[in-house]
Amino acid sequence: MTPEERLAELGLDIPPPPPAAVPAYVPWVRSGSLLVTSGQLPWRDGVMAYSGRLGEDLTVEEGYEASRLAALNGIAQLKDALGELSRVVQLVRLEGNVHTAPGFHDHPHVLNGASELMISVFGERGRHTRTALGIHDMPLDAAVQLSLYAEVGD
């Protein structure tokens, strides 16, 4: 089963790539067999779907959904770069920043939304290393921001 078929089985559509990056950077870069995305936010239909701080404005469950949505946007970037998701050999790393209130410590639970989606879509190829960091301020007040590193083939 292809990753696109798995997404359909999960009832998910690959969205168009998120809004264009500001002129100083690009949405993704490929260097040899490594593809790296810029930070992905929880956009839905051109609107920030989850904004605010976890532990203050948002619950862990809402953060989980925000990271899942940001991951879906990351998948859209992979698809844009590769044409088809079956060219992902291995998701190598997921870096996640969680917009948090002081004292929030559930970063791993929030980012599980992204990690579990990657495993559901890519199977064993979706297992990855991960960094989970909490930050006080986030661009556009987004709840989470994710970057993906993927080994890709031709």
Name the features.
single chain, alpha+beta, 60s Ribosomal Protein L30, Chain: A, two-stranded antiparallel ribbon
Task: Summarize this structure briefly.
The chain is built from 3 helices and 7 strands. It is α+β, with helices and mostly antiparallel strands.
What global shape is seen? globular
Under CATH at level 1, the class of the domain at 50-154 stands as Alpha Beta
Q: What is the CATH superfamily of the domain at 50-154?
A: RutC-like
Q: Given the helix and strand composition, which structural class is it?
A: alpha+beta
Estimated share of beta-strand residues: 25-35%
Which residues sit in consecutive blocks of at least 5 with pLDDT less than 50?
A: none
> If you consult CATH, what is the topology of the domain at 50-154?
60s Ribosomal Protein L30, Chain: A
Order of helices and strands: HEEEEHEHEE
Mean pLDDT: 95
CATH architecture classification name of the domain at 50-154: 2-Layer Sandwich
Number of helices: 3
Q: Record the strand order, biggest sheet.
A: 1-2-7-5-6
The biggest sheet, with number of strands, parallel, antiparallel or mixed sense and barrel status, is:
5 strands, mixed
Rg to the nearest angstrom? 15 Å
Helix content: 25-40%
Count every beta strand, where a strand is a DSSP E run of 2 or more residues: 7
Report the span from N to C terminus. 18 Å
